[in-house]
Write a structure and sequence with these properties.
The chain has 680 residues and is an alpha/beta fold. Helix content is 28%, strand content 22%. The chain has 17 helices and 31 strands. The strands form 8 sheets. A 6-stranded mixed β-sheet has the order 16-15-14-17-19-18, sandwiched between helices. A 6-stranded mixed β-sheet has the order 30-29-20-21-22-31, with helices on both faces. The protein is elongated. The relative contact order is 0.09.
């Protein structure tokens, strides 16, 4: 057995015996330990910091003496003088093995750092981006062995970093020679490591050792909003997040309106393409400004979006997506240059679009699948990405199905009489006393309820401006529980409900939620508002129910609400409306912007791109538009919670009054003033 010293690395637990004098960085590389180094062991970058541990280690069967590593040297002292090394740290490229030793690799020295999402059920993101920095020393030109500067740079990358077949664009050639000479033949190279379609490619050069960062952006390109996360590709940190309204809204709030616009206007598709690209460029400027970086340092971009946005971003007319069989121009993942899409980031930046699942189930649903991993779940999970176009996944380890439902913009406050986007002053939480029928609410920007002392002062700068999406969900559900609206969606009269807050409003009744003040008028919920939410939630539930039919089940084990709006929905209120299937409330969770998280995973981990491409190929696609039972489910789901499904779990928690405000169905004298056929 070798008598060479034993080197044990933590937290990986990898170990091996190495000859005295072996650098710790060399030992780490031979064992496959996750220890970073950009400068190739020259003592320049400090990425390979390690912490030796001394004393008895029964677990590892070693005793580490104080002289287990070589003495502190001049390189480490110089670095410590200039930049400072934390107490107890050594540079792995300088410290050599002298005896048995236990070496801890701190998180900041690990290449594949773990970026842990906040939700308990989230998976870790292993950091392994496609764009990385490499410091190399290039052979100087020699008249006796003539070769080009680029060729010698490529050789240096191969010999020092094992990067094979590296290519370069014209702009690299144009600036290569002055950079090499300014750096005295030492340069830092940003390299896109390549993929199944492209070889590795030089993206940028800096003379000498570049200490800065390069960045990537994960973009969730939604119908209504565009959200972006700017990530440091060396650390995985989200250094800035930003968003803006999709400028395409001016062509129509929902997707089919935009498809119709392209059909009705010869230049419509191009107008919308120009608009969304301008929006993205504005977002790049905005997020770079927030992070105080140059946009030219953004070298990798990942985009997730629905199929219509996918086509419009690419400059493809979405005409075929507006009619059966809803054919995509391509459903495969795309690897493009930023210049192809006229995006104002680094001119060599690459853009990766995740694959689409089907004609109406896009790359955003694929990103949700990557983030939430229903295909890895032991229990049957329903994942609903709530938005203008809801995308739904149902599955477990045995298989996953997907569909979409056109919910429209009602959930986001559109089509609602007092509706608005989420902003300070918007009502977001509502409670109604079932006895007095009196409401109280919270608005965005204040933690106080409207009945709390000091509420008027707290909202003095914003006022009460309207109802956002989560607010309209809660108020209608509270009205249902308080006996103000029946299962079919009709608001009762003052006599039927016992409150003057219900008032005649044309041929129907409305419910006054806010009396108003000197600065603003009253805010009410109308029967038209309830109808809009009924149609949206019926579409959402019908898609989920259709997948359950295909799976042959009547119940799911878990429900995950995804999307920025989904993060703010109360599970109880959503179930009272019948937006989601009957389920234990503690089994209904929020994933936040899961599509954005999936985009970030694909940005920070190149293996995840291949993983989601494989996953998408296995997902069974269900097209709701051609399924006969969708309409049947839709009609039943128009009622609150449902006309035929009993929702036993919900009813064991919440009392839903059994009443009808149809003609002759109520108690008040005015109950016959409206003639309307009952829907459920």
């Amino acid at each position: 057995m070798s008598q060479d010293p034993l080197v044990v690395f933590t937290p990986s637990g990898k170990r091996g015996r190495f000859a005295v004098g072996t650098p710790i960085l060399t030992a780490a590389r031979q064992l496959g330990v996750d220890l970073d180094s950009v400068c190739g062991g020259r003592g320049i970058c400090s990425k390979c910091q390690i912490t030796p541990s001394y004393g008895e280690f029964p677990k590892h069967g070693v005793t580490v003496r104080e002289d287990a590593l070589s003495d502190w040297n001049k390189v480490e002292q110089r670095y410590d003088d200039i930049r400072g090394l934390p107490k107890g740290r050594r540079l792995g490229c300088q410290a050599t093995v002298q005896g048995d030793v236990v070496i801890d690799v701190p998180p900041e020295s690990q290449v594949h750092k773990q970026v842990v999402r906040k939700r308990a059920e989230a998976r870790d993101i292993t950091l392994d981006p496609l764009v990385k920095l490499f410091y190399v020393a290039v052979e100087e030109p020699d008249m006796h062995e003539p070769s080009g500067d680029l060729e010698r740079l490529v050789v240096a990358l191969r010999e020092q970093w094992e990067l094979e077949d590296v290519k370069a664009d014209l702009h690299i050639l144009q600036g290569l020679q002055p950079v090499l000479r300014k750096g005295e033949w030492k340069v830092t190279v940003a390299v896109h490591l390549g993929d199944e379609e492209n070889p590795p490619r030089i993206m940028h050069l800096w003379p000498g050792y570049y200490e800065g960062a390069v960045y990537g952006v994960a973009i969730d390109l939604g119908s209504t909003t565009i959200a972006a996360h700017l990530c440091d590709l060396a650390t995985g940190d989200v250094v800035a997040s930003s968003g803006l309204m999709n400028p395409q809204i001016r062509f129509g709030e929902d997707l089919m309106s935009r498809v119709s616009y392209s059909m009705m206007n010869p230049t419509g598709a191009q107008e919308m393409t120009d608009a969304v690209r301008e929006g993205l460029n504005a977002l790049f400027t905005q997020i770079a400004s927030e992070a105080e970086i140059d946009k030219s340092l953004i070298m990798d971009v990942v985009v997730v979006c629905n199929p219509v946005m996918h086509h419009l971003l690419l400059g493809i007319d979405p005409f075929e997506l507006g009619q059966a069989p809803f054919a995509l121009a391509t459903s495969n993942a795309l690897r493009l240059r930023a210049d192809d899409l006229i995006l104002s980031v680094h001119h060599s930046a690459r853009v990766y679009l995740l694959p689409c699942i089907a004609g109406h189930v896009g790359a955003d649903a694929a990103a949700v699948a990557l983030s939430e991993a229903p295909d890895k779940s032991d229990d049957l999970v329903l994942v609903v990405d709530v938005g203008t176009n809801a995308e739904i996944l149902l599955g477990d380890k045995t298989g996953v199905m997907a569909c979409s439902s056109p919910t429209g913009p009602a959930f986001e406050g559109a089509q609602i009489s007092a509706g608005q986007r989420a902003a300070p002053g918007a009502i977001e939480r509502v409670e109604i006393d079932p006895t007095t029928k009196e409401p109280r609410f919270k608005v965005i920007g204040s933690d106080l309820w409207s009945t709390d002392e000091g509420f008027d002062v707290a909202i003095a700068t914003t006022g009460v401006t309207g109802i956002c999406g989560s607010g309209i969900i809660e108020v209608i559900a509270e009205m249902r529980m308080a006996g103000l609206v029946d299962a079919g969606g009709l608001i009762g009269s003052p006599e039927q409900t016992g409150t003057a807050r219900c008032f005649a409003d044309g041929r129907t009744y409305s419910y006054r939620l806010w009396d108003g003040d000197d600065d603003s008028g009253p805010i009410a919920v109308t029967n038209a508002d309830i109808r809009a939410i009924q149609m949206a939630k019926a579409a959402l539930y019908s898609g989920a129910r259709l997948l359950m039919d295909k799976r042959g089940v009547d119940h799911v084990d878990r429900v995950v609400l995804a999307g920025a709006f989904g993060a703010h929905i109360s599970a109880k209120h959503a179930m009272v409306l019948g937006m989601i299937p009957d389920c234990l409330l503690d089994k209904v969770t929020s994933a936040g912007n899961a599509a954005g998280t999936g985009a970030r995973i694909a940005l920070l981990n190149r293996a995840a791109r291949a993983e989601i491409e494989d996953t998408v190929r296995k997902i069974q696609k269900i097209e709701t538009a051609v399924e006969p039972r969708f309409q049947e489910h839709f009609v039943n789901a128009s009622a609150m919670p449902n006309a035929v499904e009993p929702f036993p779990i919900l009813r064991s928690i919440v009392a839903l009054p059994d009443l009808s405000f149809n003609a002759g169905g109520g108690e008040g004298e005015d109950s016959g003033r409206r003639r309307r056929r009952r829907r459920g």
